[in-house]
Specification:
This protein has about 525 residues and is mainly alpha-helical. It has a single domain (about 1-395), classed as Sodium/glucose cotransporter, CATH 1.20.1730.10. About 75% of the residues lie in helices and about 0% in strands. The chain has 20 helices and no strands. Helix 4 (about 60-70) crosses helix 13 (about 285-300) and helix 5 (about 75-100) runs antiparallel to helix 20. The radius of gyration is 23 Å and the shape is globular.
Length: about 525
């Protein structure tokens, strides 16, 4: 345990020192680069930064899902990332890039109205701050469970390290740190998979297992169960994966500013597209490690609680020393997630509220100061929220509800804006408000599965928008839609103009479909082959 603590402590020291020197290297960066990152990143730098942002200590809960429901849940991630990443790269990135937006809510103002932008930005900023507090708490809990460190001391340590290099160096420093930490996280996940699978006895043990999960399928099956019931208690049956996974995946990649912010730092539109497609492949390591460890622990220790699966795997199956390295890898995932939320929330406030509403003539250096002050206040607010986070399951429930329901509403508005030329700003705002209210009502007074409620919110938004726009459109003045729809991009000759940035997108579509087919059927073949040995 002492060796593990030394390794983790050394990791934090390295991050602190690296953060200082990298921030000093970028200290002369312009105020704009401090906030946006400078738009000079190559596709692989974007990919690793995105991966580091997406991978967080929630691996504990994902591992628990694998323990309880089985390996088939990885199909959610396959559809969630592989297919939606291609769609976003082909259609959404060209619009973001050519419309020169700084934040994702800014698109809603350019396409519809300021109220739409302000509403989404307010909800997103609040949720990022609450999620940030939850992530810091979860990281501190990991240090307490694994190394017996003080919970509050760990919270303060994590907050101080992140605040130090984010506030000092800005977005450029964050991107550089996340690039290397993303590589470290991938190495960590590979080691976790190898160590746990080896200790349990190999994949043959999983293939020969007769364990039936809560979903009623074999624990090693990659085929989701089918269930047409709207009130099903099964976690992501086939119908939910085919409907809700593409919606929430597209929203997570396109509307969630903490992810999109990194895409907007690419040196060109093509690099942003390639980076997004690359992270879709890299992101497989994260759920693969989580669900595979969960399944193996269900076989090895069937009597433990699902949420204990990952902790027990590290504590019981990984030797001292290597354990410390893996914990450091989890901390790398945590720091990359939290610094992303910190930069995103501060940029949202600075650009969407301070610059757009409070002080429209603010100079770049003034905006840089506002961002730094906002980051300090956000960290202090995070510390203040710790007592609430520690005992409030409803807070984490709120976060999940936001991503499940509000993102369904917002991505519907984004797709309407991008795929139609209809100009109806108040219809968009009414659709957003009404759909969120209807969704909350359904969630509160029915037992409908949360995935189907999310699908309902998506459909309801589209229906309400087009219904309301019938009465609004004739009275709405025309606006310039240049670079705001797939039909009006700057060099548009049709809706497929996005392909001009990187023609390899069509080939990638075939590669993604082939990869999904090979992965799904390859896993089933491997399990049958090992079971027959």
């Amino acid at each position: 345990m002492k060796i593990d603590s030394i390794i983790v402590g050394a990791y934090f020291l390295i991050v602190f020192i690296a953060g200082y020197f990298i921030s000093q290297h970028y200290k002369k960066a312009s105020a704009g680069d401090f906030i946006t990152g400078g738009r000079d990143r190559t596709w692989y730098q974007v990919a690793f930064a995105l991966f580091a942002m997406a991978a967080d200590p929630a691996i504990l809960s994902l591992c628990g899902l694998g323990f309880l429901w089985g390996f088939y849940i990885i199909q959610w991630n396959s559809v969630h990332m592989w297919f939606t990443a291609w769609f976003a790269a082909m259609f959404i990135i060209p619009i973001y890039w050519r419309s020169k937006i700084v934040t994702t809510p800014e698109y809603l103002e350019k396409r519809f109205s300021l109220p739409c932008r302000a509403l989404f930005s307010l909800l997103l900023t609040a949720t990022l701050i609450i999620t940030l507090a939850g992530a810091v708490y979860l990281g501190a809990l990991l240090l307490k469970d694994f190394l017996n460190w003080s919970l509050m001391a760990s919270v303060i340590l994590i907050s101080a390290i992140i605040g130090f290099y984010v506030i000092l160096g800005g977005m450029k420093t964050v991107l550089t740190m996340d690039f290397y930490q993303g590589i470290f996280v991938i190495i960590t996940l590979i080691i976790v998979i190898i160590a746990v699978v080896y200790k349990v006895g190999g994949l043959g043990v999983l293939a020969n297992s007769t364990v039936i999960t809560k979903a009623g399928v074999s624990i090693h099956s990659i085929v989701p169960p089918s269930d047409w019931s709207l009130v099903t208690k099964k976690f992501f049956p086939t119908q939910a994966i085919l409907t809700w996974a593409p919606i929430t995946g597209l929203a997570w990649l396109s509307c969630n500013f903490s992810m999109a912010q990194r895409l907007l730092t690419a040196k060109s539109e093509a690099h942003a597209q390639k980076g997004l497609l690359a992270v879709a492949i890299l992101a497989v390591f994260y759920p693969l490690a989580s669900f595979l460890v969960g399944c193996m622990m269900r076989i090895k220790m069937p009597d433990i609680l699902p949420d204990e699966a990952f902790v027990m795997a590290i504590m019981e199956l990984v030797p001292v020393g290597l354990r410390g390295l893996l914990i450091a890898g989890l901390m790398a995932a945590l720091l990359s997630t939290v610094d992303g939320m910190l930069t995103a929330s501060s940029a949202l406030f600075a650009d969407d509220f301070y610059l757009r509403i409070i002080r429209k003539n603010a100079k770049p250096d003034e905006l840089k100061k506002v961002v730094r002050i906002t980051e300090v206040l956000t960290i202090l607010l995070t510390l203040a929220l710790m007592p609430v986070i520690r005992k409030a399951d409803s807070v984490m429930g709120f976060i999940q509800d936001f991503y499940a329901y509000v993102f369904g509403v917002v991505i519907a508005i984004y797709l309407i804006g991008m795929f139609t030329k209809r100009i109806a700003p108040w219809s968009a705002f009414i659709a957003m408000i009404s759909s969120v209210a209807l969704t909350i009502t359904l969630d509160s007074f029915t037992d409908i599965n949360f995935a189907y409620i999310g699908v309902f919110s998506f459909i309801a938004t589209i229906v309400i928008f087009f219904t309301a726009s019938i009465f609004e459109q004739k009275r709405t003045p025309m606006i310039d839609l240049k670079n705001l729809t797939i039909y009006t991009l700057s060099d548009a000759k049709g809706p497929w103009v996005g392909l001009k940035a990187w023609p390899g997108l069509w080939k990638w579509a075939l590669a993604v479909a082939a990869s999904w087919f090979a992965f799904s059927y390859g896993w089933q073949f491997l399990m049958r082959h090992l079971a027959n040995k």
